Amino acid sequence: MDNQKESIAFLRAANAPTMPPPVSDRGVIGWLRANLFASPRDSVLSILVLLLLVWVVPPIFKWAVTNAVWNGTSRDDCIGPEVGACWAFVKAKFGQFIYGRYPIEERWRVNLTGLLLIIGLVPIAMPTVPYKRENAVYLLIVFPILAFILLTGQLGLEPVETSRWGGLLVTLVVAIVGIVVSFPLGILLALGRRSEMPVIKMFSIIFIEFWRGVPLITVLFMSSVMLPLFLPADVSFDKLLRALIGVALFSSAYMAEVIRGGLQAIPKGQYEAANAMGLTFWQGTRLVTMPQALTLVIPGIVNTFIGLFKDTSLVLIIGLFDLLGIVQQNMTDPNWISPVTPATGFVFAAFVFFIFCFGMSRYSAYMERRLDTGHKR
Amino acid sequence: MANSSDAAAGVADSGRVSLIYDPKVRSYFFQALTVIVVVYILYTGVTNAVDNLARAGIASGFGFFGDRAGFDIGQTLIHYTNDSTYFTAFMVGLTNTLLVAAIGIFFATIIGFVVGLARLSKNYLVQKLATVYVETLRNIPLLLQLLFWYKAVLAVLPSPRGAHALFGDSVFLNNRGLYLPRAIGEEGSGLVWIALLVGLAMWVVIGMWSRKRQMETGQQFPVFLTGLGLTIALPLIAFIITGAPFVVDYARLEGFNMVGGRVIQPEFMALILGISLYTASFIAEIVRAGILAVSHGQTEAAFALGLRPNHTSRLVIVPQAMRVIIPPLTSQYLNLTKNSSLAVAIGYPDLVAVFGGTVLNQTGQAVEVISITMLVYLTISLLTSSFMNWFNSRVALVER
Q1: B93 and B43 in one domain?
Q2: How many domains does one find in chain B?
Q3: For a 10 Å CB count at each end of chain B, is N or C smaller?
């Protein structure tokens, strides 16, 4: 035994020390090699992109920050050879950009409406908060009534004509009314398109395909020019309401298609189970299939809303002053007119739209991940 | 529902449920109700419209199409003067819309595919740049982008006197537009065009022949290079034989303005820039999703069969990705076409601006004008989607 033991020349008793990976594979160099210079083609691309960035980013930074005018009272501060963005313009007009020509002493009503909206929106957006049904009732029924009273001035409040509304207020009103009205209409149309009754199915298809086939501009033209013709002579709507009708009908067609997608994604067994339980069509829809379908298509609904939110800017073409409209109108203010004012105004409006849309798209992506159960068909 | 009570009594003894609960009867009832409601709404609308029009003294019907238009249009593809009829004006608007849509689709597809592939790149910088592009452009309203290009970029370009000259004084960029040199054909130039067409036709024919031969024998033929060579070489030969029958007309400064050459107006440039960059951001996402949808096993299988990377992507990945890409791509093309109607905001004379704007204001015939405008877009939508459905059914792989 002893001999045998001695015949083993070397026996490693402990693990060899772990060596760090070679220098070329770790740290900054490793990262650069893997991500920027993995192949000759990659290297060329990286260098080209770097050159592009060096060419583009510093001028933009100079325009937006170092050469920008942050404080000022008129166009004189924003005129000069190397002047960048005229943020003083945005600062001076900020109130208008948000509220339009809404009377200054009544702006608290707009703020209160915004607060009421946030109170309803935050809990419904968080999947873990209970009372979703009550919350939805608040958002779809109670809130619109309160908002209507507050914004237009009912019940003893000072009335404010819609022609004085403007800015972000109009953008949000058009988008939210569009979504709130299109939601029930979209559900009905989606059910109609899946219905077994040929007449109802045909009407739904015609309605949906018509609105989806025409541009929103023509819809807005139609609601502003043609709609008054189809109403009795003594009925007249105000401009904002006409635009709202157009937007609501337009978006309900898109909403219907989203919801139909959700209804189609639910296994047939769910419908059959609801029938087998003795539920009527409406009971089954309300209690079994629709809740599942709507949960499935939350990302789709949010995406529709993003599209609608961006499309609200089109109302400026029929003479309403939404955020973009009011920014554009203020650019021609003689007190502020300068070569950099248009770019400044557009960048500001773009920034506001971007914040809203990007936020919503992140939320939609988050819901998509949450809803993704991992087992796809 | 008038017959429900006696009908219910009648069925009771036969042991069946009453008619109120008969799904068939209910379905007929609700359908009839829908028809009545829709017909009522349409009827009231039409009678109101007739009353209102009569009261306002607005003519109806399509007779105005033959009247003299009397206004000028900045950009026309077909012959048009202010003496032309409203119908010609309508055609000008329509062709302008189709032109913008076609060029916009062309650029949006190219940019979209490049950016979509860039988003999948392993190169950190390229991928991040593409992501920033997509996230920025698709979260900002198109109308804002159009106005930005038009009012904040192109309108503040220098006047013709200080125009940016590119490519050694042959291309000029100023606030009146982009001035390109124009080739004017002289005698014999027709032959060059014919040669070009012949080259293209031969490309198609060779493509069909090569496909057939490959199906039968498995042998491949370099269709792309041969086709490209023919399309370039044939017109070139014709060009030389006929003795260079073209005169190039350069734009030049005369007084305060540029003359000669071919001018691309700033409205058109802004519109093309805006809609193609915007739509490209959506197409990029579609392309990315389409390629990600092809499972990695397909790539591995192709490599295992000994295909080279570029053959793998061309013969294995792309055909399968196209299946996923084409349906949403179609709807993006339709969106682009519909979005081209935003031209009205920057004054490009498209269908909505010319017909739904100027013609509507001059004639006051809102119902006819807007219905026709909508009908045109609806037709374009339906035609495009049926063409793309046909194309899709050709590309779609037949499973099992």
Answers
A1: no
A2: 2
A3: C
Q: In this structure, is residue A170 part of a structural domain?
A: yes
Please tell me if residue B27 touches chain A, with a CB cutoff of 8 Å.
yes
Q: Examine residue A80 and state whether it is found in any structural domain, yes or no.
A: no
Give B340 or B252, the one with higher predicted confidence.
Answer: B340
Q: Is the ipTM of this complex over 0.95?
A: no
Quick check: is B219 in a domain? no
Domain with B269 in it: 86-181+250-395
Mean pLDDT throughout B177-182? 78
- Each residue of A135-145: pLDDT tens digit? 888 888 888 88
- The whole-angstrom distance between B381's CA and the closest CA on chain A is 6
B333 in a domain, yes or no? Answer: yes
Q: Looking at the predicted structure, is the pLDDT value of residue B4 above 50?
A: no
Q: What is the pLDDT of residue A377?
A: 39
CB contact under 8 A, A197 and B31: yes
User: Do B140 and B42 share a structural domain?
Assistant: no
| Full-model pTM | 0.84
Q: Which residue has the tokens 């041969």?
A: B226
In a domain, B62, yes or no: no
Contacts of A350 in chain B (CB under 8 A): 140, 144-145, 148
The CATH number of residue B93's host domain is 1.10.3720.10
Asked if residue B187 belongs to a domain, the reply is no
Mutate to test the interface with B, among A346, A353, A364 (most CBs of B within 10 A): A346
- Residue A6: its pLDDT value, please? 62
Distance CA B281, CA B130 (A): 9
- pLDDT score at A5: 57
Residue A136 lies in a domain: no
A341: closest CA among A65, A69, A61? Answer: A69
Say if residue B346 is in the same domain as residue B286: yes
Half-sphere exposure of B55 toward its Cβ, with a 13 Å CA cutoff? Answer: 10
CA distance A175 to chain B (A): 13
Residue B10, pLDDT score: 46
Residues B140 and B267 in one domain: yes
Q: Which structural domain, as residue segments, surrounds residue A262?
A: 87-102+160-371
Can you give the pLDDT at residue B135?
92
Q: Is B374 exposed, middle or buried, given 0-12, 13-18 or 19+ CB atoms closer than 10 A?
A: buried
Which residues lie below 8 Å from residue B356, measured CB to CB, with a gap of 6+?
A217, A218, A221, B344, B369, B370, B373
Q: Is the pLDDT of residue B251 over 80?
A: no
Which chain A residue lies closest to B361 (C-alpha atoms)? A225
Inter-chain touch B49–A314, beta carbons under 8 Å: no
Q: Are residues B117 and B27 in the same domain?
A: no
Cβ contact, residue pair B148, A346, below 8 Å: yes
Question: Which domain CATH number covers A281?
Answer: 1.10.3720.10
Q: Do B344 and A200 touch (CB under 8 A)?
A: no
For chain A, residues with pLDDT lower than 50 are 1, 375-377
| Cβ-based neighbours of A90, under 8 Å, separated by 6 or more | A97, A344, A345, A348
List chain B residues with CB under 8 Å of A52.
Answer: 129
Q: How many domains does chain A have?
A: 1
What's the pLDDT at B8?
A: 45
> Does B176 have pLDDT greater than 80?
no
Q: How confident is the model at residue B9, as a pLDDT?
A: 46
Residues B126-175 have pLDDT tens digits of 999 999 999 999 999 999 999 999 888 887 777 776 667 766 667 777 77
Cα distance between residue A84 and residue A210, in whole Å: 46
B37 and B141 share a domain?
no
For A49-80, write each residue's pLDDT tens digit: 999 999 999 989 988 888 888 888 887 888 87
Are B47 and B91 members of one domain? no
Q: What is the pLDDT of residue A8?
A: 67
Contact flag A218-B374 (C-beta cutoff 8 Å)? yes
Please check whether residue B29 touches A, CB under 8 A: no
